[in-house]
C-alpha cells in the first residue's frame, strides 16, 4: 500500500471512531456503512465506546482506531479507487457518499486474522494490540473441597478410537417424536443410521445435548456442562466440564471416542482424559428412539504430590428431541446469538452462505501456569469459510505484548450448523479457546481451555 493510502486509512479510522463518540453518530454511521460496509462491526464498536468514560474511553478509542486502520487498509488495498469518496466522507461524516456498485467496491477484512493455521503478526478484531490492557484478578482458592477446574487449555491432542460400541449400563428412553417421521416395525432392531438432529440426555444431574450430523455417519458437538471428580490422595472434589467435537458413528449404531488434553489445573500442568461411548437403539412401533452409553473423565497432575482425579464411569440415556424435519441446506443468512456461556456473543452468516463474519467474544477467562494467575481477554475473527457440510474452523496466531513482555496469542473457533432447533430457529454449536504464552521471570502458559457454545438464528437477512 502507498503512503498516501496508508495515511488515508489512519485518517478515516480516526474519523470513524471520533464520530462514534459524538452525538451525530447516527447520521455518520449511514455514510460509513454505505461506503466501507461492516455495519455490524460499526455498531459493535459504537456500543463498546458508549459504555466507556474518562481514561477508559480514551484508551478504547485508541484501540478501536488501530482496529479500523487495518480494516480500511484492506479495503483500500482492494479498491484504491474509493479513496476520493472516503476523503469526502472524512471531511463531512454526515453526508451520504456517492452511490457505488458492488462491482466497484468489494469490502474485505483480511487483515484481522490468519485462517486455517497460518501465523504472523495479526490482530484480534483487526489490530496489533498492546496486551497490557488486560485486567488481573487473583485466583481465589475456596479450599480443595470446592475447587473447580477453571482453566482447561487448548486441546493439543485428540485421538478417536472407533470400537465395536460396547455400552456400560443405561436405559433406553422414549423420544418425544419428530415431525414428518413415522415408526416402522423393522425399526425394532438398531438402525444402520439414526435420525438426523439433536438428542438430549435427561437422567444425569446436568442434562447435555449432542447431534447426529446430516451425513448420519458422525456425532457432533458432545458437550457435558458438569462432571464431578474425586481425587486421590485426599478425596478432594473437583468439578469440570468437557466436550468432544466429533465421533465417527459405526454402521451398527455404536460409537466410542477417547480424547486426551494437556492443560492447567490449580496452577500446575495437567492431563485430562475423556471418554464417551454408546449405541443407538432403533425405533419401536410406539415411536421410541434413543441412545444409551457411558462417559468418564480422568485428571492427572503433580502439585505437592502426584494426584489422580476421576469421575468413574457415568451412565447416560438420551432421547431424540421433538424438532422440525432436518435438512442439509446451507444455514440461513443473518445473525446468530450464543446464550449458554457467561458472556453471550454474536456472529453472522454472510449473504453468500459460504462465510461466517464478525465473530466477537467479549470476555475470555484464562488461567496461567505456574502460579494460577487469572487473565481476562477478548478476541474476534473477521471471517471464517463455511464448508459445504455446515462445519467451520479457524485458528489465529498473534504476536503481541503482555505485561511488558513479547507474547504469542493463539485463538481457535470451530463448530457446525445443525438444522433447526425445536423452536424452528436455525442452530449451530461448537467450541472456542485461547492460549497465551510469554516469558517473564519464568516461562508462562495461560489458557481458557475449550469452551463449548450453542447459538440460534436471532435475525435474518
Question: How is this structure best described in words?
Answer:
This protein is 16% helix and 41% strand. With 461 residues, it is α+β, with helices and mostly antiparallel strands. The chain has 3 domains: 106 residues, no CATH class; 177 residues, no CATH class; 131 residues. The strands form 2 sheets. The protein has a 6-stranded antiparallel beta barrel. A 6-stranded antiparallel beta barrel has the order 3-4-5-10-9-11. Helix 1 crosses helix 4 and helix 1 packs parallel to helix 5. It is globular and about 65 Å long. The two termini are 34 Å apart.
Element-level helix/strand string: HHHHHEEEEEEEEEEEEEEEEEEEE
Please give the alpha-carbon distance between the first and last residues: 34 Å
Structural class: alpha+beta
Please work out how many helical segments DSSP would assign: 5
Count of the separate structural domains: 3
- Biggest sheet architecture: 6 strands, antiparallel, barrel
Quick tags:
461 residues, alpha+beta, 3 domains, six-stranded antiparallel β-barrel, globular
How does the SSE layout of this entry go?
Elements: H1 3-20, H2 25-36, H3 39-50, H4 54-78, H5 83-91, E1 135-137, E2 157-159, E3 197-201, E4 209-212, E5 218-232, E6 237-248, E7 254-265, E8 268-283, E9 289-302, E10 306-310, E11 314-320, E12 334-338, E13 346-349, E14 355-369, E15 374-385, E16 391-402, E17 405-420, E18 426-439, E19 443-447, E20 451-460
Antiparallel strand pairs: 1-15, 2-7, 3-4, 3-11, 4-5, 5-6, 5-10, 7-8, 8-9, 9-10, 9-11, 12-13, 12-20, 13-14, 14-15, 14-19, 16-17, 17-18, 18-19, 18-20
Helix pairs in contact: 1-4, 1-5, 2-3, 3-4
